[in-house]
Amino acid sequence: MIYDILLVVVLGGIGLNGGHGKVRNVILGTIFVGILLNGMTIMNIAYTIQNLVKGVVLLLAIVIDSLVNPRDEQTSQQGDL
């Protein structure tokens, strides 16, 4: 369940480093994931393959997020002790 929530949030455009996001984008991410899963279920794709597809989509979303919102000096030091 947490895996699906992470997928929806990242697809909704909320950065993993913190920052800004909009509820509208998260709702659109939820609709996209719902359509994706519903389509794979209708096509009778195995559950393990569905998880693999969700993982690839999540990985691509994280890579795109890191390219669009790179960490700057101040962001990288926030977690340091």
* SSE ordering: HHHH
Radius of gyration over all CA atoms, rounded? 15 Å
Q: How many strands in all? A: 0
Structural class: mainly alpha
Measured between the Cα atoms of the first and last residue, the distance is 31 Å
Largest sheet entry: none
Query: What portion of residues belong to β-strands?
Result: under 5%
What is the number of helical segments per DSSP (H or I, 4+ residues)?
Answer: 4
Q: How much helical structure, as a percent, in the residues?
A: over 70%
How would you describe the shape? elongated
User: pLDDT average, as an integer?
Assistant: 81
**Which residue ranges are poorly predicted, with pLDDT under 50 across at least 5 consecutive positions?**
none
Structural write-up:
The mean pLDDT is 81. 10% of the residues are buried. This protein starts with a helix and ends with a helix. The protein has 81 residues and is mainly α. Helix content is 70%, strand content 0%. The protein contains four helices and no strands.
Secondary-structure blueprint of this entry?
Layout: H1 2-11, H2 23-42, H3 47-68, H4 73-77
Which key phrases capture this entry?
single chain; 81 residues; 0% strand
In short:
This protein has 81 residues and is mainly alpha-helical. The protein has helices spanning 2-11, 23-42, 47-68, 73-77.
